[in-house]
Amino acid sequence: MLSPRTVYEAYLIVKFADRAYGLDLLPSKVSVEVGNDRCEGTVYLRHYESKKQCVFPRSMAFRGKEERVPCKREDGWIEIELGNFYNHGGDLEVKMCLKEVTGTHLKGGLVVERIELRPKHVVKV
C-alpha cells in the first residue's frame, strides 16, 4: 500500500549477464503512467563499473523527457530510473515500462530482479 499525497520514484533493478548483447545499440524508452499523467525518458542499457559514472541528479521533471544512466548499486545490481508519479490517495493503476522496439537486431542478457518504489517527498496540505 502506498502513502497518499506522496511523490514516488520507480526503479527497475537489473543485472547484465556476462554474455549480454544488443542492449546498448539503441536507447530504450522508460515510462511511468498513472491515470492521464505520464512521465517518460530514455536510457541506454550500458554496464557501468562504478557509481562515479552515474549522472546526478538522475531525477526528471514530471511529464518531462530526459536520458537516464543506469547506476551500479553497492549490492552489485544496477538500477534504472523509470520515472516518478504522485499518489493522490485513490485506487489508481500505476503502469511502468521499459521497451526498445525500433531496432530489428537481437538482444539478450538482461536479468530483471524487481521494481522498487521509493517515496521522493510528501506533499503538505
- DSSP strand tally: 8
Low confidence ranges: 55-64
Inertia-based shape: elongated
Q: Give the helix proportion (percent range).
A: under 10%
Rg result: 15 Å
**Distance linking N and C termini:** 20 Å
How much strand content do the residues show? Answer: over 45%
What structural category arises from helix and sheet content?
A: mainly beta
What is the count of DSSP helices, taking H or I runs of 4+ residues?
Answer: 0
Q: List the helices and strands in order.
A: EEEEEEEE
Q: Main sheet, how many strands, which sense, barrel? A: 4 strands, antiparallel
Strand order, sheet with most strands:
5-6-1-8
What does this structure look like?
The strands form 2 sheets. A 4-stranded antiparallel beta sheet has the order 5-6-1-8, with no helix packed on it. Strands 4-3-2-7 form a 4-stranded mixed beta sheet, with no helix packed on it. Helices cover 0% and strands 52% of the residues. The chain is built from no helices and 8 strands. 19% of the residues are buried. The protein has 125 residues and is mainly β. The protein is elongated and about 50 Å long. Strand 2 (28-34) and strand 3 form a beta hairpin.
Write the layout of secondary structure elements.
Blueprint: E1 6-21, E2 28-34, E3 37-43, E4 67-68, E5 71-72, E6 78-87, E7 94-99, E8 108-122
Parallel strand pairs: 3-4
Antiparallel strand pairs: 1-6, 1-8, 2-3, 2-7, 5-6
